């Protein structure tokens, strides 16, 4: 019993610094005015080579439409574990989505990017319509999207 308690205490002490090194990032995405159904969005991180790393947020409740968020769908494998607890309603024309995500501090200024894929039923699908480096310098600056996203910004 004492060995188990000691093991748990040591494991907790070792894990605590990892949690302390993650910070909250506020993600704000405003959509353009467009006709049609609400948009599905996938907001995710890629490494310096553009390889998918993890999901930050998915807007849209019906998983059957996630395949239209092409780069994110391929990278995440649409594995539910990749987005459980990180999804919400789709976003309407002209609306703003504001969510927060935990991002490890060591990913900032290390070549990582925040990307957004978007899709609207019976309309265009936009792979990586937003690509923005995850840097301290870029925090608070708006970036225009190339599809349904009017602008995106993150705040560290």
List the helices and strands and how they pair.
Layout (H helix, E strand, L loop, with lengths): L1 H19 L1 E10 L7 E8 L5 E8 L10 H7 L10 E2 L7 E9 L8 E8 L4 E9 L9 E2 L4 E7 L1
Parallel strand pairs: 3-4
Antiparallel strand pairs: 1-5, 1-9, 2-3, 2-6, 6-7, 8-9
Explain the overall architecture.
- By secondary structure, this protein is an alpha+beta fold.
- Helices cover 17% and strands 40% of the residues.
- It contains two helices and nine strands; from the N terminus they run αβββαββββββ.
- InterPro entries: DUF2271, TonB_box_CS.
- It comes from Pseudomonas panipatensis.
- Residues 1-22 form the signal peptide.
SSE string, helices as H and strands as E: HEEEHEEEEEE
Number of continuous helical runs: 2
Percent range for β-strand residues: 35-45%
The biggest sheet, with number of strands, parallel, antiparallel or mixed sense and barrel status, is:
5 strands, mixed
Number of strands: 9
**Number of spatially distinct domains:** 1
**What portion of residues is helical?**
10-25%
CATH-derived architecture: Distorted Sandwich
CATH class: Mainly Beta
What are the low-pLDDT stretches, counting only 5+ consecutive residues below 50? 1-20
Helix and strand composition category: alpha+beta
The residue-averaged pLDDT reads: 90
Rg, rounded, reads: 17 Å
Strand order of the largest sheet: 4-3-2-6-7
* CATH fold node name: Coagulation Factor XIII, Chain A, domain 1
Outline, from the CA principal axes?
Answer: globular
How far apart are the termini? 43 Å
Keywords: Signal
InterPro entries: DUF2271, TonB_box_CS
Organism: Pseudomonas panipatensis
Pfam families: DUF2271
